[in-house]
Amino acid sequence: MNTSTLPPPDPRNLEPPTIDQLIELEVRIADEIQLLKEELNAANAELEESTSTHAIGGSSRHAPESLDEVSATSMRLREERLHLLEAALESMDAGLYGECEVCRESIPWARLDAQPEALTCTRCGSV
Ligand SMILES: [Zn+2]
Question: Distance, CA 104 to ligand 1 centroid (Å)?
């Protein structure tokens, strides 16, 4: 494996995405939305199960709160990402995808490839 130098940046990566790249991204986004929804559903089902077990058990003196917090945080992050991805799909439908929502410049392909949910260009994006 060649680890000596990184290849020079492909100039095409600084261009806005082509139609083919957009279609590829749309598929990736749709897949990820599907996956996130399944994960959230599974997590919700688990949560309901543990809540009802709790109610039956009665003694909630020392619940593993830290664990609950961790899973709550990761669920919240998944939900946020789900919303971002859904917004990206919506802007694709509206034909606005790949355009920075702040300055209206085209977002380079490299950025969209790394972060399909990006709705702002590198300069305007705080994410
Ligand atoms: Zn911008």
Answer: 6
How remote is the CA of residue 98 from the centroid of ligand 1, in Å? 10
Does 106 or 10 have the greater pLDDT score?
106
- Domain span at residue 105? 17-46+65-127
Give distance in angstroms: CA of 119 to centre of ligand 1: 9
Q: Distance of CA 34 to CAs 19, 87, 94, Å?
A: 23, 14, 21
Distance 124 CA to ligand 1 centre (A): 4
CB-based contacts of 85, cutoff 8 Å, min separation 6: 29, 32, 33, 36, 116, 117
Q: Render pLDDT for 28-66 as a digit per residue (tens, 0 to 9).
A: 999 999 999 999 999 888 878 877 765 555 555 555 567
pLDDT at 14 over 90: no
Split into its structural domains, the chain has a count of 1
CATH number, domain containing residue 126:
1.20.120.910
Residue 6 has which token pair?
A: 């990184």
In a domain, 115, yes or no: yes
